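Working notes for the structural subgroup meeting. M.R. asked for a predicted model of this chain before we commit to crystallization trials. I am recording the input and output together here so anyone reviewing the notebook later can reproduce the run.

Input as submitted:
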Amino acid sequence: MDLFLQALTQGILVGATYALIALGMAVIFSVSGMVNFAHGDFLLIGMYLAYALFMGLHLDPYLSVLITFPVMCLIGGALYAFLLKRLAGSNLLMAVQLTLGLSFIVQNTLLLTFGGEPIRAPSIVETDLLVVGNIIVRTPQLIAFAAAVTLSVAFYLILNFTDVGRRIQAVQQQPRAAALIGVNVSLVRTLTFAFGIGVLAIAAVLIVPGTSMAPAHGLRWTVIALITVVLGGMTNFVAIFLGAILIGTAESLATLYVSGTSGMIVPYALFIILVLLRPEGLLKRA
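Returned structure, recorded in token form:
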């Protein structure tokens, strides 16, 4: 029973971090209609930036977010404004091909710059543990969970109860009508894309402590974000968070109860089953 509770706790904590990664993809899709297949590679950029700041300035990964967040926002805004803007809302296949091309560019750039061997950027809290009864929780995972929940709730409140959120929803639902009432659709899409990439800088510093990184790891993060967003119905942020918790929990429990590589299949098998049963998303009515 203790092992089950340990694995369940681990899965929930990890799932919250997955939700934060998926949030960036969902935000980008909601206003531009694009699925960014380089999403995980941009997460790696954030992780490698944190590593570079640690090596160059001895800056703890958690503090490096003060630099990496604005840098990633600028990268995202520039990428959309100068490269992806013309594809927004149309030419879905071209957007997929373009972002896949970006994935290869980022992967090989990181490979040339940092090499192909797995590396790590340690933090001062990396080895800290919190013991609650028989449950042991790593402090970095607890920090990641708290940050993911806080940011997800903050974005939900902004989206539903502020003028900025109403502009985003207007562009998401009816971009032409939004333009007619004075909403700068292009600016909203650019800023939202920038935020979607900037969120990855936050997710990166939450993942870095205790996690190795390599240029080839981007695809795994992209797949996790994509299946989580699909489970949530693409734009339902509450369902996306729930889907991330399910994937994280399935991954953790499968590692405990299913031996070998078969355990790695369980989260993806669960995804297939849920999509077959609820193709419209976990919380969306058919």
